[in-house]
Amino acid sequence: MHVSTDTKDGSMDFVSIRIITGDVARLVAFYEKATGARATWATEDFAELGTPHATLAIAGTRTVPLFAPGSARPADNRSVIIEFLVDDVDLVHRNLIGFVTDFVTEPTTMPWGNRSLLFRDPDGNLVNFFTPVTPAAVARFPRRRA
């Protein structure tokens, strides 16, 4: 089955994920500090933190009815992991100690070759900062080669 995507070459590009929250300012401040990225605010109910390949959008509950009333609830995610590729996950972990209050795992090398740090943001969303460390993992992320 083929789904038309309305782009010039027929491909699709994943560009962002949006978190719905009851406190936009608090969650934006958390992600700014955790990632070092600066948010661009469109309104008091919507901000975006851009990276070279994707955007993390953070929106308040007042934006939900614009899509479909009741379609999203803040602080109710237990199935999605928000992932950020970092140069040195162990250094990032040391820098987050005292700021992040809910570490799920310390930096751990996963079977697929990424060293991962899992923690929860203030709304309980699971966040993974990771660094490819094995040759196979590094090959999947060539822009990070030393």
Care to describe what's here?
The chain is built from four helices and eight strands. The protein folds into two domains: 13-64, 2,3-Dihydroxybiphenyl 1,2-Dioxygenase, domain 1 (Roll), CATH 3.10.180.10; 75-146, 2,3-Dihydroxybiphenyl 1,2-Dioxygenase, domain 1 (Roll), CATH 3.10.180. With 146 residues, the chain is α/β, with parallel strands linked by helices. It starts with 15 loop residues before the first strand and ends in a 6-residue tail after the last helix. The model has no long low-confidence stretch (mean pLDDT 92). The relative contact order is 0.16.
CATH level-1 class of the largest domain: Alpha Beta
Instruction: Tell me, rounded to a whole number, the average pLDDT.
Output: 92
Task: Tell me the total number of β-strands.
Answer: 8
Strand order of the largest sheet: 1-4-3-2
* CATH fourth-tier homologous superfamily of the largest domain: 2,3-Dihydroxybiphenyl 1,2-Dioxygenase, domain 1
**Content-based structural category:** alpha/beta
Q: What is the number of helical segments per DSSP (H or I, 4+ residues)?
A: 4
Radius of gyration, whole Å: 17 Å
Largest sheet: 4 strands, mixed
CATH architecture of the largest domain: Roll
Q: Can you tag this structure with a few keywords?
A:
2,3-Dihydroxybiphenyl 1,2-Dioxygenase, domain 1, 33% strand, alpha/beta, 146 residues
